[in-house]
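Batch manifest, entry 17 of 40.
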Amino acid sequence: MTTPPPNQPPYSPQDGVPAAQPLNPSDEKLWATLVHVGGIFFSFVPALIGYLVLKDRGPFVRAHTATALNFQITMLIAQIVAGILWLVFVGVLLTIAISIVTLIFSIIAAIKANQGQWYTYPMTIKFVS
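Output type: structure tokens
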């Protein structure tokens, strides 16, 4: 087997696709933090993109993107149920409560990720691992 030229990324032998380069620990912390903060503003989209793009770049960022994606999907389902319950007024209160829970837990997760600590959201359905 020959080695690739110096400026070429390594390729996986089975499909010829460039192999994902691992992130250094500070980059993993940065991306994990950004995924959690992005969930506050854009729901599950940053977590989904982060999971798809970064899941093979390191165990820390994979765990944080997966847990953020699980949490944001769970909160999206809760928001849909609350939206249906707006017909009986209790949905208004549920929508406010879910928004507060999402904000608080996303901030906590972002702080933990920035400190390099592992974090799992409470009250989350596990869709991806």
